[in-house]
Amino acid sequence: MSIISVNPYATTTQTVGFIPQTITDYYQIQYKSLEVHMPPGVLKHLKKKGHWDDFMTYHEKIPDMISLPDYAGQNPKEPGTVELYKVLNDHVILPIKLNSEGLFLSSFYILDNGANKISKRLRVERIHPFSFFS
Q1: Euclidean distance between CA atoms 32 and 69, whole angstroms
Q2: What contacts 54, CB < 8 A, 6 or more positions away?
Q3: pTM of this prediction?
Q4: Chain-centre distance for alpha carbon 105
Q5: Torsion angle, alpha carbons of 23, 29, 33, 34, to 10
Q6: How confident is the prediction along the chain (134 residues), in pLDDT tens digits per residue?
């Protein structure tokens, strides 16, 4: 596997990582590839929603966040999606969705009050530690 570099100024869809198959298997998300893409519209979304600074702080770590999350889960309101969580200096969430072209990173942001939200989501089993999927 080659080293993936995330370009925050890309004008075309780029590969930003590979999601672990154990996670897609658990949530029964099937597609021909485990590649996660990011269309350029996501960058516009991040700027519009005020998440650009979060993205710029951590964009170089996105491939590792996707391949080795600390937690993973699914938003009960959005079947066919996966939420990956990584705890760095902040609690980062990477929502991944499925469309006709494959898996794509739909957003990226730091959770406000992240430690409490992760704790609650673990308690209600919305998310699980990454080791749960192995």
Answers
A1: 21
A2: 46, 90, 92, 108, 109, 110
A3: 0.93
A4: 6
A5: -20
A6: 458 999 999 999 999 999 999 999 999 988 889 999 999 999 999 999 999 999 999 999 999 999 999 999 999 898 889 999 999 999 999 999 988 889 999 999 999 999 999 999 999 999 999 999 98
